[in-house]
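Handout, section B. The chain below has 632 residues.
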Amino acid sequence: MPPTPFTVMSELYGDAGSVARWQQGNGLATGWDFHPVLTTGEQSFLESAKPPFAYFSIPSGTTATDCYPSSTDANTEALLTNLTQQLGPNVWRLGMPEFDQGGGCWARGRPSFGGQTDQQAYNSWTNFYLNTQGLGAYLGQTPQQRGYRWMSLCDFAFCPQYAYDMGSDLVLLERNEDEVSGITPGIAMLRGAAAEHGGKQWGIDLSTWRYWNDGPTVYDSTGKLVTGWSTSTFERNMYIAYMSGANIIHNEAADYTTGGQGGGLNPLGRTVQRFTDFATVRHPDRGTPYVPIALMQGHYSGFEPRFGAWMQGPYKWYWSDPYSAGDTMLSNLLSLAYPRYNTWGTPIGPWVVHSADGSVNVSASINAYRQQLADGADPRPWEPFGSSRWGETFDVITDGSTLATMQQYRAIVLSTGTTIDATMLGNLTQYVQSGGTLVVNAKQLPAGADTLTGVHFTGARGSASSETWVPDASTIDEDAYDYAVATPTSASVLAHTSSGDPIVTSNAYGSGVVYVTTPDFMGDASGTTILHVGNRLIDTLEARFAKVMVTGPSTLDYLVNTVGDTTVVTLVNTGLSNTPWTGTLSFPMPGGAYSAREWTQDAAVSTSVSGNQVVINASVPGYGVRVYALTG
């Protein structure tokens, strides 16, 4: 089936045909999600507008139906098959909304995963949904057999990989809620899962709910925020999702008018309207996200990024099992690539009330936060975002990936916790042979990999707290770490201890290169951080692959897209004060004439030349977004 055009999808309840027409006329959405039972007015709207459409219809055999109002329709199969024939392929059944939730109706009877191996937990989890909940009857069919496409909505970032495994055609990942992890690194995990499943479609579901003021985004009659999130959080998440390549942004049901000026749209409505205009009218061709590097984790891991007030511990599978060594490595790599990503959803600000034991007093904090909003306080400093050291240039894939998936990336960094099996070693060897770059750790290498890596491990062990980086002879100080002693055969040494033991090596193999790191899982002895030498190695790769160098304060998440001969850089200010981000964007000098524009304001910008680089002096308002494009 053909791909879906980018869609801003609006969820509506009730007899919503007239509301959908109004939203369409006001540029608030380009697709809609209706709840059962479809009315004559809704069907008439769909037949005339022919928009992308999702039907919020949960199969009646599940445990979830009584928790969602207007969520079942016995005629769903026939209805969606008929609508697909009338409207085309962009018709979905949203049959698994929030199905992976930590508690609630979907979780009734779900087995505990404590003490199970990762594969046992995965088998129990998928069996529960496919067989106990009876969803396998639908997910086991192709869209052609079913007559329509299947959409699933995940709460947790570990879920999309497994939702695709089970047969989902498109997966939404819920963000913008502080009871789930943040959009960074959620995008990397969702986009990687879609790539691993043959380039399936994906999207971001935007909630309006904030746990810490106990309500959705709503305004009083004067336009003052009562509960929920500031509009800048919606705006930043929408731009990140769109420029990351999402097929759909699914906006959960929201009030866009109460508190609107002169009876018009309220702040949330105006924010959604401006974004929809940007993405579907002014700049519908965002190009291709530039994602040169994949982090590869274990397929059955169940790893969830840290977030929030209570989810900072090294646990997974609904916090029932501890991180494995590979999970710890992945967590440390994410902390390196996305500084402060785990701050999403944390309670910060003068409204946080602590009990005598130092814990957060939830009910008192919620009341205090609501009072702060009522007094006109700015909520934006209390809505932390993660930043990106190298931009959103990573996907997270698994060791279940095919060679074809691997070859979509210029480099792969292994973050698995066990040694590579024979099948994976064969795939990785072919990947490097054909030009890929592989970063692998001594703990992940099986016997018999010497030809690929160019090093031989002696079986001895060593400890160190610094090393020399050979390219510039600099000394890198570290926390203490342990390493496997190796002897180079064909590899070059990039970093070594004072005694000469290799810490990072580089081996040309075929058209590619293999980097071996000898410290255990590239981390310190406590397993709490990636070594500085690991940072230096990834810096080296990023500099080699970069289409633009972004220089400035670290309070920034950025994304890079390519559109023909245009390089587009989206800058998202992640600072916690209303301070503009200022910095520079440096692009390789084009071969001919070139020009630069800023897309959110559709204005030309000036450039300068430094060496062989075209430089843009960029600025992003506090809590804001800017999109710079260099054409040439």
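Note. Residues 223 and 261 are 8 Å apart (CA to CA). Compare this with the example in section A.
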